[in-house]
Amino acid sequence: MGTQILVTGATGNVGGEVVRLLCAKGAPPIALVHSADKAPALEGSCTEVRVADMRDEAAVREAVRGIDKLFMLTPVTPDQVEIGQTLVHLAAEAGVQRIVKLSIIGADLEPGIALGRWHREMERAIEESGVAWTFLRPAGFMQNMAGLFAATVPAQGMFFLPCGDAAVCKVDARDVSAVAASTLLDDGWEGQALTVTGPEALTYHQIAALMAEASDRPVTYVDVPAEAARAGLEQACVPEPMLSAFMELWALEKAGDAAEVTDVVERVTGAPPRSFAEFARDNAAAWAPAAAGGPALD
After folding, report:
1. Backbone phi, then psi, for 97, in 5-degree steps?
2. Does domain 143-169+199-259+272-287 correspond to CATH entry 3.90.25.10?
3. CB under 8 Å to 63, separation ≥6 — which residues?
4. 5-138+172-196 fold
5. Helices (H), 255-298
6. Residue 173 belongs to what H/E stretch?
7. Residues whose CB falls within 8 Å of the CB of residue 118, separated by 6 or more in sequence, listed in order
8. In the predicted model, is pLDDT for residue 297 greater than 50?
9. Mean pLDDT of the region 33-44
10. Can you say whether residue 136 is alpha, beta or left, with left for phi > 0 and alpha for psi between -120 and 50 degrees?
11. What angle is formed at CA 190 by the lines to CA 188 and CA 191, rounded to 5 degrees?
12. Which of 15, 113, 235, 238 lies at 20 to 30 Å from 182 by C-alpha?
């Protein structure tokens, strides 16, 4: 039996692509899904599927049994820290030898923002577990520009954010997945925290122009007051503390603190990261007037 790799979040933008890439590289992983109704999404792949609600300690203990390496992606929920810490504890207990954790850019900053602090708590649990680790700290996903605005752009040709005119650097989730697959399979990345970004920082006005060019329809970015953005999240029933966490993230972007560009994708995978223009061409249907929806967020 070869090395057993477990991929959590295996049906999302990142986890699903990690599964596909590992299969393509001849290293079929085991996919962990939180409910049986998620398993059909993996039919036809090379992977074995295990089902475990990540809040069910007994089920997670069984899921990590016999695993050598873990790709750790936790849900974006108010209890994600507890879920992550339990997963780390059970993985170490089961003899997992390496954890590649999907974190967030700026997780090591003090005091940072809530999203970063939550991921840093999970990172510390891994560091203290004695298991070899690699932390992937990606910038904001380009895919969120399709998922978040799959209603407003097709209907109104607009998207709304409280981020001013600052430039932001985003990354294609496919490139994050490629870095994840490489660091799972290749030695030499242990003990490193890798900030994973796209190739350029753009303003949301520039991003809107690229969306418009790709979808052949007008797209406008509307800078809105923070109070209006908060009201929109409340209307969408986003719970605390997630609501405040998103507001913190957007404030950070508005302050110009989300423009960092790194060479991690090319250094790890040997291929340059995808530009937003390329992403927009690949996802133009998400913003077309007839579009009914977009991809789920990780």
Report:
1. -95, -25
2. yes
3. 6, 32, 50, 52
4. Rossmann fold (3.40.50)
5. 264-269, 276-282
6. helix 173-185
7. 80, 81, 245
8. no
9. 87
10. beta
11. 130
12. 113
